[in-house]
Amino acid sequence: MKNFVIKTLINAVAIWVAAWIVSGITLSGDDWQSKTITVIAVALIFGVVNFLIKPVVKLFSLPLFILTLGLITFVINALMLWLTSWASDKLDLDFHVEGFWAALLGSLIISLVSWGLNLAFGDDD
């Protein structure tokens, strides 16, 4: 359970940083507290999308992994962020990704920030 909470908080910080840097990713809210609740909810949705849908997409795109030497991973990560944006819109959360290029840049930033925070605060295993 502790591992799940840490990973969710790391994803929340990474999503917040991506929304701060990328102009096509918006995270709106009335005040700091509502933005915090929104970004944690979005991080939970992002975690569920990455846990349930991403492995299926990776399985079906296995030939593209071989053909592109793994570079298709960037596109799949962008699509997972875009799907998170769609799900957030359906749940009336104030998170939106405007277009594929914003999703691609945002997914790169989220990956880098998550990687760095996982190095600092991740598992001791």
Describe this protein's structure.
The chain is mainly alpha-helical. It has one domain (2-121). The protein has helices at residues 2-21, 32-52, 54-60, 62-67, 72-90, 100-121; strands at residues 25-27, 95-97. Strands 1-2 form a two-stranded antiparallel ribbon. The longest helix is centred in the last third of the chain and has 22 residues, at 100-121.
SSE map:
Blueprint: H1 2-21, E1 25-27, H2 32-52, H3 54-60, H4 62-67, H5 72-90, E2 95-97, H6 100-121
Antiparallel strand pairs: 1-2
Helix pairs in contact: 1-2, 1-6, 2-5, 5-6
Question: What is the average per-residue confidence, as pLDDT, rounded to a whole number?
Answer: 91
Distance between the termini: 15 Å
Number of helices: 6
What is the global morphology? globular
- Spatial arrangement of strands, main beta sheet: 1-2
Main β-sheet description? 2 strands, antiparallel
Low-confidence stretches: none
Structural class: mainly alpha
Q: Which range does the strand content fall in?
A: under 5%
Compute the number of structural domains.
1
Oligomeric category: single chain
- Radius of gyration (Å): 14 Å
Helix content class: over 70%
Number of strands: 2
